[in-house]
Request: fold
Amino acid sequence: MSRLNSLKELEARRREIIAADKEKTAAVAVCCGTGCSASGARDVAAEFERLITEKGLAVRVRTRITGCHGFCEQGPLVVVEEAGSRPEHSTSLNDSNARPAGGESGPGGLLYCRVKPEDAEEILETSVLNDGVVEHLLYKDPVTGEKFRSENDVPFYAHQSRMLMGYNGRIDPGRIEDYLTAGGYGGLAQVLGGSMPPEDVIKEIEISGLRGRGGGGYPTGSKWDLCRRVEGEIRYVVCNADEGDPGCFQDRSILEGNPHLVLEGMIIAAYAVGAYEGYIYVRAEYPLALKQVATALEQAYEWGLLGDNILGSDLSFRVRISRGGGAFVCGEETALLSSIEGLTGEPNPRPRPPYPTSIGLWGFPTLINNVKTLAAVPDIIKKGGAWHASTGTDTSKGTMIFSLTGRVNNTGLVEVPMGMSLRELIFDVGGGIPGGRKFKAVQTGGPAGGCLPAEMLDLPLDYERLSEAGSIMGSGGMIVMDESTCMVDVARYFLSFTVDESCGKCTPCREGGRQMLALLDKFVHGTALEGGLNMLFELAATMQSSSLCALGKLAPNPVLTTLRYFEDEYRSHFEQWRCPAGVCRPLISYTIDAEACTACGRCLEACLAGALTGVEDEVPELDDQLCTKCGACRDVCRFSAILVG
Amino acid sequence: MVRITIDGLDFEVPKGTTVLEAARRNGFEIPTLCYHEALEPIGSCRLCLVELGGGEKGEVVSSCTHPVEKDGLVVYTESPAVLQARKMNLSLLLARCPGVKCLQDLAYSWWVDSTALPVLGDYEKECILCGRCVRVCREAIGKEAISFTFRGVDRQVLPPFKQQPDDCIGCTACAYVCPTGAVKVTEEEGRRFIAPWKSDLPLYFCDSCEAPVTTIENSASLEEKIQETGLPPGSMRPSFKTGEREPEGTGSDPEINADEEMLCPRCRRRRVTESIARLPREKQDRSWIKARQGYK
Ligand SMILES: Cc1cc2nc3c(=O)[nH]c(=O)nc-3n(C[C@H](O)[C@H](O)[C@H](O)COP(=O)(O)O)c2cc1C
Ligand code: SF4
Ligand code: FES
Reply:
């Protein structure tokens, strides 16, 4: 494809692509995000392509390999759309509403879950060539058993507001053409059109109320303004795609599913702050994201959307990829900059101010933004800051993508408006707790976030409310726990992650973290003393106040919040030597309920430690000395006769 | 000059000095471990904490890395939050290296109970990871024989691949700046050993008094460095030339054709004095003396 030298040419190209696609009246979108690929989506996509070629349908039907739709648990996902339902036809550069059918607009296609390659033929015959529905592949509510046809009716999607993720299902990330037909690079065209000087762009971002999605929540408009105001010729824009929180894959999904969205955001940011060079810092463990970003960069250079004189304007901007080695702390901005510079990825003790916006990469002013922050930019430009600000709470605007995991029915990536309550998120979007168990707590903000109890379920998701409650928004981790979880064990688990990931530079985080961990071990073993609680607070206070970077400052959060909301549970670990949730092995023992036991003998086979002995038709005997409390017997018992206490 | 208020007293300090320097210069006592006046501060031990008051509310920062940039900075060197964190950090370091003298001394003077926390390190270990050795090697000597390796509690100072570092010249600057004595230097049978880095380098001996002087690599490196300062070549070389020197100002190297003797600094000084004193004044080579006068 040739270079585009003006905005007119961009518009013409967009029309060309739409016209070329006119013939295709239906589309089959196969999600090949990392989650669906792991459950075999690539084979499904290949089968569709083979069938379509074989049947000579290529003129009418197109297969689209898309990025993550968020509902990975039900993958591989296949969406069948009809051309009429696609918004391309109304799309033009001036149409500020140009956007793909996301969760909140457009009818959405037929959603098929857990599709196998052998289902491809049936789907083609029934739903693509005819108007039928393949019933057995529809999503079925695990609780009510109700079936849903369209993507937008599924409760998981119905409560979401997919401003960023909505694009993923409609775009083949390897095709810049798809992004263009979805209105892509419209924001860039608008700022380059001459009517928006950089100050206006920044103003618009300020109006939008967008705040950093990387965890800190710093107002993005002010950050851009700070960077722009620093004197000097050289500035950098860095996209932080390090995403180290375990279980989080929002940034990854956006980069894998729609890399041009982030790229467009970066180019607009470069225009606004006056940068000529940028870096995308992606961790090397994300091979697909790296590949898609590399492809997107190549296409953008080829089309003249990157490089010198972008779209014939005065703006020149180059983007390079920097691979991260996968250390959690490298997501911290000063560590990230060290890592890009080729030094050890350790936080620098630069007192702040100056922030990286004035002294950053190689000493030059540097704008660092998270993937989601940058991805929100193009639509803010297209639709205006006020549009973005109309969603959310007083202080937190727009949407936030959470990675919902743990003991909920629907796990996956969910994008909801700021201000939604935890209850709505967990029970409406997440579909509640499986197995009829009770909700106990939710950890928000990743391992350095806080654990909130059931009393906090009505808390609106908002930067300020969360930090008042002792937690953080972080990068959107959301781990739901039910009553079978021991809060001491959970705090210990999260802390062990941050202790492992600490860079070890400063005393409070390195030594304080391991002291705290050792103390929590005592609780778990029932050997803690009353003073242990106090010591936990003291250690936490030291880490919070004197650690060098936010990793150490935030690391005590899970311990502090569990202490705040579940102190009784800590106490019973050392006062009664009892783990109320029945988790901490040193404090529990197994017994057999002779009433419930039917002497079926299943547990005898399951026990690998040889702790259970018994003869036919008799309640087995349990040897406490040999029992390793692995729980295998409890898992196989069909009569709930194994008691833990 | 900018104004700063330390514990309620007002001072004027040059712009850009760190809070630590400003406080120490005016008689306030702030303990430090990773700070060294010859090195770039890294703020890792977290003992030099102070609390910033006034504008920035109640933030605890490391004074060794915090510059005084503008008027009106208010700092407290012994606020409750500072003392709490400082003492705890000291306890934490003691729990890592209970046997280290400088930590025990600090604990004594700051009323820290050195048994407050269980020992999680071991009694043998003496490295508190202040990184002074790493920095002196890189910043002052211009070598990179050692660096930090591994992460978290596994962090250690090591030479590359735990092998004798090619970069090491045996200058022992690392041992000199180490506050705990973790860097052990021994000299045996004409070689110098720096234990933690596995360095093993030959020494040279003074031709006159036969005392061991330093490693050959170190004297070569010193010579290189001294040339950058503008002193005449050979000024810092341990050798002393016994041959006739060419008159000053001819630009030729006076050392050529000279019989070389390897001398220790003391013997060298003695020989210089003797040789100068023996000659009539107009024949004396005063180039070193002149060059030294111009060099601060
Ligand atoms: C330990 C630690 C890890 C972090 N990890 C990430 C990360 O993975 N991704 C990210 O965008 N920001 C991360 N941050 C936040 C960044 O330092 C920085 O605030 C952010 O990239 C700024 O972008 P924003 O303003 O768009 O949020 C991390 C911070 C800390 C202290
Ligand atoms: S707080 Fe932890 S991660 Fe941050 S610099 Fe200190 S040791 Fe490293
Ligand atoms: S002396 Fe300032 S942190 Fe160590």
In short: The pocket of FE2/S2 (inorganic) cluster (ligand 3) is lined by residues B 32-35, 43-48, 62, 64 (CB under 6 Å). The helical segments of chain B are 19-25, 80-96, 101-109, 132-141, 173-177, 216-228, 265-278, 287-294.
